[in-house]
Amino acid sequence: MSRADSQDFTRLFLADTPMMDTRAPLEFDKGAFPHTVNLPLMTDAERSKVGTCYKQQGQEAALALGHQLVHSEIKQQRLEQWLAFARNNPDGYLYCFRGGLRSQIVQQWMKDAGCDYPRISGGYKAMRRFLIDSQEQIVAASRFCILAGHTGCAKTDLLNTLDNSIDLEGIAHHRGSSFGKRPAGQPSQINFENTLAIAFLRQHHAQPQQRILLEDESRLIGRSAIPLDLHQRMSVAPIIVVTATLEQRVEHSFRNYILHKCQEWQQVEGADAGFIAFSHDLSDSLQRIQKRLGGELYQQVNELLQQALVEQQQGDNSLHREWIKIILSQYYDPMYEYQLLHKKGVTEFSGSAVDVREYLIQSSHLG
After folding, report:
1. Helix, strand, coil % (nearest 5) of the chain?
2. Where would you tag: which of 2, 155, 163, 195 has the fewest CB atoms within 10 A of its CB?
3. Structural domains of the chain sorted by starting position, each given as residue range(s) with its CATH number in brackets
4. What is the DSSP letter of 173?
5. Which residue of the set 53, 96, 153, 262 is catalytic?
6. pTM of structure
7. Other CB atoms within 10 A of residue 108 CB
8. How many Cβ atoms are within 10 Å of 82's Cβ, its own excluded?
9. What pLDDT was estimated at residue 365?
10. Is 262 considered catalytic here?
11. 345 near 236, Cβ under 8 Å?
């Protein structure tokens, strides 16, 4: 039994529906959705030629050129990829930019091959508009609570144990600080926004009465910009402060920024090249805040960092804790305390991660 084309965007996104994006790779790279695979009707070069033809000679000539470019063996290769996607994702859908010619052509060719596969009406443009509008409405209607605390107090770890939370750093694929770069890189701004909007949609449908818990963030997480309306709501929301000792924060930062980060780089690049990339990552991150540290403190920390990297290669990574302790206590802590002092939101509760979690679970504000 064939499935009908769909415009039920809420269901599609909440169900993590597999989707086949038939746009050109350049369009896909600029922005797409989670659980989406790019299997284009045309390459970037082919699309450019057809677009030029359309402008100069009209739709009929452009269609003829498209069929000429995507024919025989090329057509068969792409058709086999589409059919394989349909077999592997029997509950999926296909789409193009506006739900027009490209997705209709792919759908028809698949049907001619015996596969009646549905497409998404309105395509990428309609889905993108839906996510933008949905997030704006949910942000305007929701109550927020901000999880704050000194760098290294494991706010993200705590956040991810609570059902009414959205992990902005996870969506941005960045740890949030000057040292927060991840080896796999960050999503495009549009992909960040799309994934964030889906997270809000999921929260709204699962727990519409609960406050949404977010971590205290600046407008930029790495290069990912939090939507302005959301960041404005965050800036006035009640604050929950997580406390931890300096030693606990040093240990947490050591695990995240040394052990885990080095492991991530080595998984991407291999053992030797990964360690070199990891070393450059740390050195570059420190250099980016050189002016704010001041020449003397930067020199002290950098010498410790470089020596720690040498010793780490020899099997002892403990010296990293020394420069981490200095940078937390003399750079991040004063900056955080200044920022907390100037926040508009009222501090509602302060305590250890265990106390904060218990408070948030039991709080009547969570419904």
Report:
1. 60, 10, 30
2. 2
3. 9-125 (3.40.250.10), 142-367 (3.40.50)
4. T
5. 96
6. 0.92
7. 10
8. 21
9. 47
10. no
11. yes
